[in-house]
């Protein structure tokens, strides 16, 4: 994937993100301070490289944006952000939905306790 160099250097949009508040969720509680710092840096880079697209009238606060970026980066924290290459946008729906295609069916929803999705067998997945 081609990297746009002018986007990678633009940190002005991430300077005021509520990173400390975004870290205050149970799934991130086990991280050391070093890992939290690394995740915050990676999430800031994620927001520079990707566009979060809120659909159906949903409005994303800076806290939402920071948490979404952190949750995307957490699985690849030790692998590097390059593992998230291959897409440019993240579509964010305000309500649960079902995707049914030949590959798989996934139900995704959010609750006050976090974001979840289930595979066709009903197993909770990231």
TrEMBL record:
Q: Which residues lie in coiled coils? A: none
- This protein's superkingdom? Bacteria
InterPro entries to which the protein is assigned, alphabetical? MtfA_fam, MtfA_N
Q: Which GO terms describe its cellular component?
A: cytosol
SUPFAM superfamilies associated with the record:
Metalloproteases ('zincins'), catalytic domain (SSF55486)
Q: Which Pfam families match?
A: Peptidase_M90
Recorded GO MF terms: aminopeptidase activity
Tell me which species this is from: Klebsiella pneumoniae IS43
User: What's the name of the protein?
Assistant: Inner membrane protein
């Amino acid at each position: 994937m081609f990297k746009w160099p002018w986007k990678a250097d633009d940190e002005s949009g991430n300077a005021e993100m509520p990173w400390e508040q975004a870290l205050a969720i149970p799934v991130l509680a086990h991280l050391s301070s070093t890992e939290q710092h690394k995740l915050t840096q990676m999430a800031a880079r994620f927001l520079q490289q990707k566009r979060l697209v809120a659909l159906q009238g949903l409005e994303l606060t800076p806290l939402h944006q920071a948490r979404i970026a952190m949750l995307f980066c957490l699985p690849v924290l030790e692998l590097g952000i390059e593992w998230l290459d291959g897409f440019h946008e993240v579509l964010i729906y305000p309500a649960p939905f079902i995707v049914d295609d030949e590959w798989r069916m996934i139900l995704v929803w959010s609750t006050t306790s976090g974001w979840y999705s289930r595979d066709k067998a009903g197993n909770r997945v990231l």
